[in-house]
Amino acid sequence: MAHAEGIEGVRAIEKGFSDDWKKRCCSEHQIFIRDFALNRLISLYPAEISDTSYLHCLKRCLFLLGVCDVKIETAVQLKVTDIILAMIAHRNDFISHSGVECLEAFLEGHGKTCQSCGALDCTVLKEVQCKFNQNNIREKLRGRITLLLCKWSRSYEASEEFVERNYENLYNAGLRNSALHFLIADLTVSDGRRQVHLKFLKRMIKNCCDVRVLGRLLSMILKNNHLANWFSDHVKELLENDKIESKILVCESIISYSVGNTFTWDQLIEEKTLRLASIHGDDTVRLLALKTLCCHPRVSMPLSELDLELILHLITFSMTIESPSIRDPIVDCVKKLFSRMAHILQSHGYNSLSSFKHFLHRLHDVCVVSLDKSANFNRRFFVFHVLRELHSTVFDGKVKGVTIYELLELHQIISSAHFFNVMIRSLDDSYEKCQDMAAVLLLRSHKYGDDTRWNALIEETLQKYTVACSKTQHGIVYKMKVITEFCPQNVVDILNNIGNRARMMIDGLQPNLQSISNENPIHTVLNAMSAITSKCDLTDPSVQRAANDHVILPCFSVMEMVNPVLHSISPEGMVLDEDFVDDEDDMDKNVPDQVLTQKMQSQRLLVACWRTIKAVSEIFANIVTRSPDDLLRNDWSDHLPRIVGYFWNQLTECRHRGAFEMASECFKRVCQRMKRQFTEDGHQLNPDKWLDDILETLDSGKGIHRLVSTRRSAGLPHLVTAILAAFQPEGKFDKNESLGRTMRQLLRNEGKSTAIEVHCANVLKAIISNRIFKVQINDYIEDALRLSIDRLPSSSWNLRNAYSQLFSAITLRIFGPQNLNKLGTGMSAFEFFTTYQSLYSLFLEILNKFEPSNQQSVDRATAVSAFLCHIKPTKLSATDKFCLKSFIYPLHYIAFTSHSDHTRTFAVKAIRCLFQVDSLAELMTHEYLIMLDDIHGLPFGWITSLCQIIHYIVNEADATPKLETLLKTITVAFDDLLEKKELPDLIVYYILSVYLELKRGGRSVCLETVIRCLRSGKMSRCLASTEILTELLHDGVDDVADFPDQLAKSIIQRKHQESGEYSDGNTVQNKCSGDELILNKLCAQVKEGKDGWNDLEKILLKPSLVQISLQKLKELIEINEEKAVQVLAVFLQDEQRAVRQTASDIIIYSHLLPKINFVLFPRVTYTLIASKYPHIPSFVQERSSVQFDDSLMVMPTSLEQRVFEEVTQNTFSEPDIFEFEKESIESFQKLL
């Protein structure tokens, strides 16, 4: 068999000649792999270590040698281990993980061919142990390597210190997975190894710092049958402490993960422990308690009445959880509970029917009561989930011919009038998810309910659908959807009613469009039409006729009336009277009065027109996407061009952002339907033809005047992306031919006018920003970035703005959102330049051609420097395929020579982000020392950049002889510079920042020169450095008489901070200001027995003083319990979980239950104090106020005519206590 030579022959191994190679190899192949391929790979090290093909080849080669049992000479094996060690120590994650895989393949092959492998006299294995036990290997790889060494060496064991470190690594997210796998593998080795782990596991369970981490470890232990038996034998020893969290976690883990177990919770823990867990302050603990009760792996395990009682308490106290990561698992537990109940009833008959029925009816009542009163969103959302699961198909199974749902009499409670009314009222909920679930429950209720209720609902809805109030409109629209779905026989009559009302409003708008915001709110009628067309049956001929006459035709009339407002030059501007004369002599006198009189009406007109066109877009999208094919091709064939023309005009001529963005969402749906409906090439209604027309316009400029040039090309980018989305393939990696054609056209900018270029750049930005095309645009990212950088220096502001936006979109697309102040959050240089290889030479070319006097060069270099700021700090290495050393000198040249402070700043930041500080200090210290020696001759820009770079090095570099030399030179040069030159404030600021970093690092800094400059007045203007100077001088200077006044005052204040006092320049006062002083004064009066609670209460509840107020209340609760508790009750309703928990702890530990040894759930605390002080709910209610929008555009003549609605200040607040909460608390009070 002929073999390719060189690296191509090696790469052929990676692909594999045939599937037989994976099993066995002929002798010819063995020789080729061992004598040629492996030697070739060794010779290519280290030049090709960063090449992905090299890595794959090496792994493949070692794998095949192991499969074929081919023995390798000892010297060759040692060379291979050197290469593998270099790979594992590499900074790149992919290379280092590939190294571990190569080590595994190498050890497996060595173990098959070495007769003494695993024994003490195996030379290769000894060398491997020595090399791979070094400390320079990353922690997350050490566990995998240690396991490999333990597996292939009978004499090698992980040290106790290493085991302990892995238990600590469990709390590190980056090291957790590797630590878990090592610990489980080491536990399975022998009983002796398990004894080593026992004390660490016991300590971890006792502390129980992170329930989720410990739970994951226990689950992996218990899933292993051998380890599960060992754990069960030691469970009592592991649970010697009385910590509730530990007991619940271990109990839940044993029940959930032990294979084939018959454990129940009462065999493992006491009832008291489970009851206390149900009111625990940690949501995770309550979740574990619920899992313990509900989620037994044996679904036939019976449920006792005690189980059901505890489950009901747990659900009751979990209703207000705001975290989806806890709420969703709780809902899953409830779902599993219902399934388990159904299974028990089907398996064991009626034995548990009575208890189940009582529990489910009680749970239903609790949920409905929660919706019946003013519950917050968290409670409503949770309750709807529980009700949806309760009345789902889970109980549709039959027992003796009767459904379980009917046996439990659930159909009676869901068909009750009270439940119907609550669900109908829930359709007005401000959250659409709650409305959705209410509609689902109404559908279930409709199966058993009374039709007369629906008739009343239809009548009430038709009376209110023209109310302009946004909140009412929101509910009405949803009721229309529900009515259309549940009562299809009434749709035609409703459409006739709505259509007649629409015509009346249109007639009223003809003479006076401004009445659209008050007397004729046409958008309310259109919203109702939109709701109906989204659910009605458009295959019914009667519905088709009604939709044509009463929906489509009125929409055509309305859109022509409101388009001029949204297409005007300034849609947010003023609407002036027609008889207003623009007289220059009277302008100064008349315009302000005119503006004041028109302001409110113009804004209301704009809002009404926007809402109208939004509804029209939704209606047209519903009509096109839901109509049958024959209807669109025949009866409504004349409507389609007008509808498409409407969307086209909105997306090319409309200037109102809300209008064209809403139109674009609907246009996407239209495009998808048109693509399926009209597949003929060149058809006027085929989206591909529309795309060709747009691209022709953007190429030739024909018709360009019709495209809006404001607001980033307005809706044009949305138009293009909507069409392209219609042609998006189903496969993630399939090509979108339309997208490719569009990108190639947009990236060609030769001979295009400025206006066309701007539109092309804006469309490119929209396509690149759209996540739908995330995979398909990879081939065009480099060309787009090259184009944006090339065109950034344009003389046209419109072009510069468009390409700047494109540049930002590309940066965001590649790196994602980042905080550039935090290093190491981006992509590594190896990853970036391996993915986008042409950019390496482009960036180098731009940086090397930088000329400070050439503005185009400066702009391009600024863009590249800003882009490089997103790459992770990297070690400098000359062997890298993409060597970063090539960037270091050009970036320094830009940082020192650029006249633009903006450019210098980005260059310095790029230096800081690209290079690891130790590498930078090692390479550039000599150059920095040369500049410091001649610092008086350097321009101020050089000095600024040098100070920034040195500040970075001083802050982060490890101590080395070179660094110490640099630091000594720094202080001498900076002192000399401060004394002999008048420096700008910015340079002084950076010099002082370096001094401060030296001081914080524990190095001695002589500040005599700084003090002399301050006393002589040379630094009197440096107000920006006051904070730094205070930090530097407060502990070493006593006399501040000659210092600038602001600095002297700041130092005196700092000196008195430790004593809790500060100086205002004349006298020493308490270190407080404003409200804090008043709070301290009022607290002192109350402690002295004076009456000041009314004023104190107001100041305690100020949002800016939350933490201080809580500290004061901890003291005040001992003086006046009732007053302090009622203020703390307000904090128990705070939106911040930490504030609620702190207030709960103060009440419990300082007053109610000082001996309790766990954290109590804040809602439980609130219920306890509300039971003791019945006036507390009303007290809290008064302080949970509601905000109203009183701006001019609201004009609140009535609640029903509000354009914008009231907003609750605190959406979490829930002052009222439910009766079921009181009942639950009563069962716990004795226990507490």
UniProtKB/TrEMBL annotation:
Location of the tRNA (32-2'-O)-methyltransferase regulator THADA-like C-terminal TPR repeats region domain: 800-925
Segments forming domain DUF2428: 550-798
GO biological process: tRNA methylation
Highest rank taxon of the organism: Eukaryota
Keywords: tRNA processing
Coiled coil: none
Pfam families reported for this sequence: DUF2428, TPR_Trm732, TPR_Trm732_C
Protein name: tRNA (32-2'-O)-methyltransferase regulator THADA
